Amino acid sequence: MKKVCLIIGAGAGIGGSVGNRFAKEGYHAALCRRSDGNGLQALVNRIEEEGGSASGHLLNAVEDNALETLVTAVEKIGPIDTVLFNLGAQIGNRSLETTTLKNFELGWKMACLGLFRLAKAVIPLMESRGGGNLLVTSATAAVRGNAGQHSHAAAMGGRRMLCQTLNAEYASRGIHVAHIIVDGAVDAPDTLGKMLGETQFNALRQARGGDKDGLLLPTKMAETYFHLAQQHRSAWTHELDLRSYTDLAWWNHEVH
Amino acid sequence: MKKVCLIIGAGAGIGGSVGNRFAKEGYHAALCRRSDGNGLQALVNRIEEEGGSASGHLLNAVEDNALETLVTAVEKIGPIDTVLFNLGAQIGNRSLETTTLKNFELGWKMACLGLFRLAKAVIPLMESRGGGNLLVTSATAAVRGNAGQHSHAAAMGGRRMLCQTLNAEYASRGIHVAHIIVDGAVDAPDTLGKMLGETQFNALRQARGGDKDGLLLPTKMAETYFHLAQQHRSAWTHELDLRSYTDLAWWNHEVH
Amino acid sequence: MKKVCLIIGAGAGIGGSVGNRFAKEGYHAALCRRSDGNGLQALVNRIEEEGGSASGHLLNAVEDNALETLVTAVEKIGPIDTVLFNLGAQIGNRSLETTTLKNFELGWKMACLGLFRLAKAVIPLMESRGGGNLLVTSATAAVRGNAGQHSHAAAMGGRRMLCQTLNAEYASRGIHVAHIIVDGAVDAPDTLGKMLGETQFNALRQARGGDKDGLLLPTKMAETYFHLAQQHRSAWTHELDLRSYTDLAWWNHEVH
Amino acid sequence: MKKVCLIIGAGAGIGGSVGNRFAKEGYHAALCRRSDGNGLQALVNRIEEEGGSASGHLLNAVEDNALETLVTAVEKIGPIDTVLFNLGAQIGNRSLETTTLKNFELGWKMACLGLFRLAKAVIPLMESRGGGNLLVTSATAAVRGNAGQHSHAAAMGGRRMLCQTLNAEYASRGIHVAHIIVDGAVDAPDTLGKMLGETQFNALRQARGGDKDGLLLPTKMAETYFHLAQQHRSAWTHELDLRSYTDLAWWNHEVH
Questions:
Q1: Does any CB of chain B come closer than 8 Å to the CB of residue D256?
Q2: Distance set, CA A176 to CA A128, A235, B249 (Å)
Q3: Cα dist. C224→B17, B122, C2, C232 in Å?
Q4: How many CB atoms lie within 10 A of CB D198?
Q5: Residue C210 burial by CB count (10 A; 0-12/13-18/19+): exposed, middle or buried?
Q6: How far apart are CA C212 and CA C119, in angstroms?
Q7: What is the mean predicted confidence (pLDDT) over C195-221?
Q8: Within an 8 Å CB–CB cutoff, is residue A134 touching chain D?
Q9: What is the tens place of the pLDDT at every residue in C74-127?
């Protein structure tokens, strides 16, 4: 039975690339997303064509018991060794007035409550087997709140603190929690591409030097995700940042 | 008509002391708490006996429209110049297993959603009058997550990022948002005292040098809260910490 | 004998304004700067004309024993209760190539070693009298390093950590160390004005809304410096930021 | 001609292990330390016995021109692709009174000025070849100052800000600067072992679960150092932490 890497939020960007990377190393990749069963199946097919093992799971992560049921189902495929929690909650910039209570609650349910529920479901299983990895994709909004980011920043700020409380409780019990601050635009047509629209997304890619590497490339990011899951327990990383060489770090301003 | 200082979370600790301090300077103190109408009335009476103006308001902040209705009602007393959001969400240390979904959601509703709802209700009124102050009592859990603090830290971490997004959107429009990190035990029988129980609370006070100043004294903290609301807009503080001289800062460890 | 407030770095901006503020409250203001004895005397005269007590001291803070000798001399005027360490080390943006070893060393000597030497000289005296305040003006460069700030950021980053080690060792012994992050342009002709030149400085003031309050006004900042020195030891602030309402916080980016 | 990995501070701990790791992947490891030529030669020999390429260089990094001369000499062996700046400046806990000006200056010269000088010497060479990696071993003291750490924390805090200014200036020009926060005790007899003495060091190892992995194992840390140097420029990490699973993160306190 293969070790499982469970990906919550597996589109054509980070999630899919990480699933692919783990599958290449012999893991079963359990890929989950909310919609687009065809796109999901395409990801599974690609992994299988390259000789890997994968399965696709549609789920609405904010529904009661959805994550808990998923964990139970995936454990039948194999023991979950690594989980990537990759749900975002970015809805673009909205003023306080136009950010609704519903926006605010949904952001929290996706980005913060979802991680809490997942952790409650999967960490005890990992602990009973001696260890496991919980990789959490995060965003700049987890460390600073910009204008227009009321919903997103509040959700991600909560998520970051939750990663710390999980680490504080479980590191010594063999669970490696890693909080990965993605501090830049990702070259992901499914997420950033949809948010910006095709024209603006392509303009951004061109402005950053064409389709080469001015945006964060998911296949390259996946190398670091995989490395984190392989770190020896004597030398674990809890938090790191990722950005393209062309990007300003969030703490820097343009110097004129 | 007096300027109003509205206190959300007015017990015998920080909230009551801040209300008292503002009332001494000529503000009407609108004091709100969830229960104990007698205790609330006692706070109001004390302010009035000293020649100040105050009113008491019972509200359950997590109920739909409670905060919004409160703001409307208090505005009839006078224009809200300063709000102190002083709701905590500390429930003591609980393991992941014993932290329920309900705990986690309630913590967020109190500490994070409550601030968002309050901001939506009151900031536009302040802005229409050219300015105002939103003071937010916060905790160490807003900047680091300790074991057992899953609910509290996730809620406060979200709150801190929300304070930053509010500041980023509204500072230039005259609204001063201040995030006050209370990094130590407060000498407050209503909150810490109740959580610890009388015996343990008194033992802590004795260990810190009796009833003088080893814990954070709410009347002394209130001086800084009041100062923040008086800062000129050319020199605003967004974030500061408060602790007793006997306390280790959260980032320090005992040196042996 | 009056309590002394000793200002290291007293120009027409923060240093002079803080001296003035303390003198109004009955302190003797001992004002120190490197050069321009006439300007220094003018500050002293102004304080005395308003009924306060002040003295002027020229010193080159990076010379061996200069700070130590100063402390001894000023203690003869009265007991030093509060020190403001207000030396900057900003030399504008320089590339790595054009930042010399001499620049780098001088920045450190002013901003970091100077504070260490001062602390060694003055803190034991304060401690022997039961307490005192060490206020340290700091800059955004203490918390993040921008391009071109090699010398300044390295010096200020060291200074911030030194403030923390001093606080960790001395808070419980009655010494209040406060690290004040000035996160914006100060309306100070002596420092920013000289660095930018008169034309560019006036243009900046106009762009921020004329001479009213778009830049940090030193007289208003002085209110917060004074407040910090008056905080009761049960509720001390170790770190806070100051910026004008028109300024973006250092962690925010313009949203387009 | 092999690509060179230059290690400044190559003892039997992190430095030697990183050199070994890079040598295994085909780099020439240029190993530098201040003293113990025999120990240095033993490191070189071990690498060569395993089929790798290495050279040993004794240098006193705080001497004028020592680092600059070293860079010139090593470039004759091959182009420097990666530098590990691994000089520490920990001298144990000392009170303010017993920390001398000489301690304070030496700490800065080692930990902060040394990096500045190295960067000035090596980065232009890397840039002329299109890129390179500057890996900087750092310590908890770079992000918080504990009591007794005046010299160490001031030096490391400056170092961290310098890493940020270097990154801000050079990332877009192909230079990857990584600041690695080693937040725990390293199983290194040459450094921690010497500081604690053999008896106390062995007691610490036993308390952490014997010689297995309760302390940070340098050979395991080296995996992450190597990974950082291999990250694609579209997904670079600037800062990460490393600690053993048994260690509390610096921001956590024991929960009782």
A1: no
A2: 14, 10, 27
A3: 21, 26, 22, 14
A4: 10
A5: exposed
A6: 36
A7: 85
A8: no
A9: 999 999 999 999 998 888 899 999 999 999 999 999 999 999 999 999 999 999
Phi, psi of C123 (to 5 degrees): -65, -40
Contact state of D97 with C156 under an 8 Å Cβ cutoff: no
The domain over range C4-188+218-240 is classified in CATH as 3.40.50.720: yes
Q: B-D interface: how many C-beta pairs under 8 angstroms?
A: 28
Q: Where are the domains of chain B?
A: 4-183+218-242
Q: Do C161 and D164 touch (CB under 8 A)?
A: no
Sign of the dihedral through C-alpha D213, D217, D219, D223? positive
* Residue labelled with tokens 């009955």: C26
Task: Report yes or no: A251 at the C interface, CB cutoff 8 Å.
Answer: yes
Which residues in B lie closer than 8 A to residue A154 (C-beta atoms)? Answer: 112, 116, 158-159, 161-162, 165
Mean pLDDT of the C134-144 span: 97
Give the count of Cβ contacts less than 8 A between chain B and C.
Answer: 126
Which homologous superfamily does the CATH classification assign to the domain defined by B4-183+218-242?
NAD(P)-binding Rossmann-like Domain (3.40.50.720)
- A146 touching C (Cβ < 8 Å): yes
Q: Which amino acid appears at position A37 of this protein?
A: G
pTM above 0.95, yes or no: yes
User: In angstroms, what CA-CA distances link B148 with A112, A239, C84, D183?
Assistant: 16, 20, 40, 22
Element (H or E) spanning A31, and its range? strand A28-33
Which architecture, in CATH terms, is A4-188+219-240? Answer: 3-Layer(aba) Sandwich (3.40)
Per-residue pLDDT of chain B (256 residues), as tens digits, is: 899 999 999 998 999 999 999 999 999 999 999 999 999 999 999 999 999 999 999 999 999 999 999 999 999 999 999 999 999 888 889 999 999 999 999 999 999 999 999 999 999 999 999 999 999 999 999 999 999 999 999 999 999 999 999 999 999 999 999 999 999 999 987 778 888 888 888 888 888 876 667 899 999 999 999 999 999 999 999 999 999 999 999 999 876 5
Helix and strand numbers, DSSP H then E, in chain A = 9, 7
Asked if D165 lies within 8 A of C142 by C-beta distance, the reply is no
In chain D, which among 170-209 make CB contacts under 8 A with chain C? 170
C48 touches chain B (CB under 8 A): no
The Cα–Cα gap between C176 and B220 comes to 15
Helix or strand run (H / E) with residue A219: helix A218-230
CB-CB under 8 Å, B232 with C213: yes
CB atoms within 10 A of CB D207: 11
From A205-214, C240-249, D137-146, D153-162, the region with the lowest mean pLDDT: A205-214
Q: Which chains does chain A touch, 3 or more C-beta pairs < 8 A?
A: B, C, D
| ipTM of the complex, rounded to two decimals | 0.96
Q: What is the three-state SS of A110-165?
A: HHHHHHHHHHHHHHHHHHHCCCEEEEEEEEHHHCCCCCCCHHHHHHHHHHHHHHHH
- Residues A103-128, mean pLDDT to the nearest whole number: 97
The fold of D4-185 is: Rossmann fold (3.40.50)
The nearest CA of chain D is from the CA of A239 a distance in Å of 6
Distances (CA, A) of B173 to B123, B129, B135, B236: 10, 10, 16, 13
Are residues B234 and C252, on separate chains, in Cβ contact within 8 Å?
Answer: no
Query: Are C160 and C108 a contacting pair, CB within 8 Å?
Result: no
In three-state secondary structure terms, D210 is coil
User: How far is CA B135 from each of CA A96, B222, B236, C174, rounded to the nearest angstrom?
Assistant: 18, 11, 12, 28
**Residue A181 corresponds to which tokens in the numbers above?**
């601050």
